[in-house]
Specification:
NADP-dependent 3-hydroxy acid dehydrogenase, KR_dom, oxidoreductase activity, acting on the CH-OH group of donors, NAD or NADP as acceptor, NAD(P)-bd_dom_sf, 8 helices, binds NADP nicotinamide-adenine-dinucleotide phosphate, oxidoreductase
C-alpha cells in the first residue's frame, strides 16, 4: 500500500463498529494491512469471524511484525448495557484504543412521513445516533485521560442534504454531523482528532438492508453509474487516520465521479 504512510499506524489499536460488512469490513482489513490491531464490532458473529480471518491474512501478507492482533466482539451498539460492558469482552492488551471508527449504521425503507413505522424510526435513531454517541462517550473519556485518540464518524451526503424518502435516515446523519462538529470544537484544546467521512453512493449491503432484502430494488440504486466501493471509503478513513498527529482531517465528502449531490447524478456513463 503506497497510499498512506503505514509507519504511523504500526502497532496502533483501532476499534471499528459495523465491521461485519461493507465499509467497516474493508476498513478493518486495510488497517490490518497497515500494521494495526483491530477490534471488530457488529451483531453477526459469523460474518465478523470471516472479516477477522481476512484481517489476519492481510496482516500476514503485509509482512509487518507490528500489529496483527484482532478481537471480534459481538455487540449491538444500540443496546446501552452491551456498550457499557464493552471492555469485559475486549482482551486486556487491546483496551488502549487509538482510533475509534463509528461506522455501524443503516437505513430502512423509503416511506414518506406519516407512513414510517415507529420501529424503523426508533431503530435507525438507536443505532445511527444513540449508539454512535454511546460508543463515543465511552472512548473519548478514555482519550481525554490518555491525552490522545482519534474519533472517525461515518456521516453521509445524507447528513448535508435531506431528500424525499429519507426523512429519518437524513435526520440521523444530520445529527451525526452536528454531534461531530460540536465535539471537534470541544476538543480543540487537546491532541484528540475528530473526523467525519461523508460518502455518497457506496455499493455495499446498505441498499439491500434499505429494501429489506430485495436485491433487485437495491441494485437499481446504482444502475447506470459506477458507485464507490467499500474499499474506496476505507482508503479515505485509513488516510485520515495516518496523517501526522498535528493534522486533523475534519471532513471528507466523497462521491462517485458521476454523483454531485444526494439527488444529482449522471446515469449514462456506465
Ligand atoms: N453505502 C452507502 O451508500 C453509504 C453512504 C453514506 C454513508 N454510509 C454509512 O456508512 C456506514 C456503513 O454502511 P455500509 O454501506 O458499509 O453498509 P452495510 O454493508 O450494511 O454495513 C453496515 C454495518 O453496520 C453494522 N450494524 C448495523 N446496525 C448495528 C448495530 N445496532 N450494532 C452494531 N453493528 C451494527 C452491520 O453489521 P451487523 O448487521 O452484523 O450488526 C454492518 O456491519 C453506515 O453508517 C452508513 O450510514 C453508507
Amino acid at each position: 500500500m503506497a497510499l498512506f504512510n503505514a509507519t504511523r499506524l504500526l502497532g496502533k489499536t483501532v476499534l471499528v463498529t459495523g465491521a461485519s460488512s461493507g465499509i467497516g469490513a474493508a476498513t478493518a482489513i486495510l488497517f490490518a494491512r497497515g500494521g494495526a490491531n483491530v477490534i471488530l464490532i457488529a451483531r453477526r458473529a459469523e460474518a465478523l469471524k470471516a472479516v477477522s480471518d481476512a484481517c489476519t491474512t492481510a496482516h500476514q501478507e503485509s509482512g509487518l511484525v507490528q500489529g496483527g492482533k484482532f478481537a471480534s466482539v459481538q455487540l449491538d451498539v444500540s443496546d446501552k448495557a452491551q456498550v457499557a460492558s464493552l471492555w469485559d469482552k475486549v482482551p486486556q492488551e487491546l483496551r488502549n484504543v487509538d482510533v475509534l471508527v463509528n461506522n455501524a449504521g443503516y437505513v430502512l425503507g423509503v416511506e414518506h412521513v406519516g407512513d414510517i413505522s415507529d420501529e424503523d424510526i426508533q431503530g435507525m435513531f438507536a443505532t445511527n445516533v444513540l449508539g454512535l454517541i454511546a460508543m463515543t462517550q465511552l472512548l473519548v473519556k478514555d482519550f481525554k485521560a490518555r491525552k490522545s485518540g482519534h474519533v472517525i464518524n461515518l456521516g453521509s451526503i445524507a447528513g448535508r442534504e435531506p431528500y424525499a424518502g429519507g426523512s429519518i435516515y437524513t435526520a440521523t446523519k444530520h445529527a451525526v454531523r452536528a454531534f461531530t462538529g460540536s465535539m471537534l470544537r470541544e476538543l480543540v484544546n487537546t491532541p484528540i482528532r475528530v473526523t467525519e467521512i461523508q460518502p455518497g453512493m457506496v455499493e455495499t449491503e446498505f441498499s439491500i438492508v434499505r429494501f429489506r432484502g430485495d436485491t433487485g430494488a437495491a441494485s437499481k440504486v446504482y444502475e447506470g453509474l459506477q458507485p464507490l466501493t467499500a474499499g474506496d471509503v476505507a482508503e479515505e478513513i485509513v488516510w485520515a487516520a495516518s496523517r501526522p498527529p498535528h493534522v486533523n482531517i475534519a471532513e471528507v465528502l466523497i462521491f462517485p465521479v458521476n454523483q454531485a449531490s444526494a439527488t444529482s447524478n449522471y446515469r449514462g456513463g456506465k
